[in-house]
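Bumping with the actual sequence this time:
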Amino acid sequence: MGQRSGRQERSKKPQLALSETMEAETEVRNNKEEAEEVKAKNQRLASVFGVADLKNEAIGLYNLGQTCCLNSLLQVFLMNIHFTGILRRITVPLSAAQKKNSVPYQMLLLLEKMQRGKRKAVGPTELAYCLAQHRVRFFVQHDAAQLFLTLWNLLKKQMKRPELVEELKDLYTICIEEHLACQNCSFEMKSKSTMLTLPLSVLDADSHWLKSLEDCVQHFFLPEELTGPNMCFCQKCGRKTPFLQSMKLVHLPQTLTLHLQRFNFERSSRTYKLSHYLSFPQHLDFREVLTENQCQADDSEKATWQYELFAVVAHSGSTSCGHYCAYVRSLTEHKWYCFNDSMVCPVSWDDVKCTYGHPRLNWRETAYLLIYMKKHPQ
């Protein structure tokens, strides 16, 4: 009995070992298939965004001499995976001279240097040299809104492929329809225009402080009477008459840039900064901010007007001696970072809200450009 039992136990061991081996081989095969699937997924993502964009580490930019404004804008551009998806498909210039003078190409090289390097910060030296060839001055105080427009126009001008230019326009440009109505007759003029940023006054018509971004947007679209020296020529009346000017929103892009006009110009040519408290939300729905009369869009277009804050370009100091930094929300990690030249650190939403401003702290950081991203693009 004992011997027979022993033979049975010995006969089961090879079967058990074989079963365990088969299970192990199956697990290895499944892991290999899973790894290959992940690799194939990353390759598909890389074909759209590039391998570098799959790495989430935030990299700083060295200040080359009053380049904090440029550095902040570059971080906003290059942290936007929709923009880098366009940038990676540009036509590479043929000659060395063309490469040195191509803003899109030099920006692409900088992106690769930032994401593939092992350092905490890199220098945008080649791109700065390239911009200097296009009359972008350095060692001067820049206005972030103006420099943003300059960079964008250079990118658009030097992108050789028409389809990429159209994608760049679709990604950033706003469409507004202006209405001008004569107050003496029924004559009316309409014209559509596109803009890269929506310029928002932080003061109302009586020079009182506006307290929120929503107030600023509503103020921009309020009708305005053009009287006195601002009167327009009416073709029907045959003379200058009072007109009512109104703006209607037609289209909003995937990446929406709002310009808070913090720098106020006086007739004495003196410029001063408006640092008062002005809040802005993480989530912004234009359908709740504007009335039906202020929109010239169908329901399918308006359904996409829900936004989430992506970046804040903040200014500290005075108009003559200031500094820029950028707060950017990673689209892959969904975390906020502060990019202060070569210094990069994770921050909270409460840190971002510190850029709302304070009326008695003029040197404090205040939001200057707000960049929102569509939640549900078409």
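The tokens above came from a reply further down the thread. Confidence is low (pLDDT under 50) at residues 1-18, 41-56.
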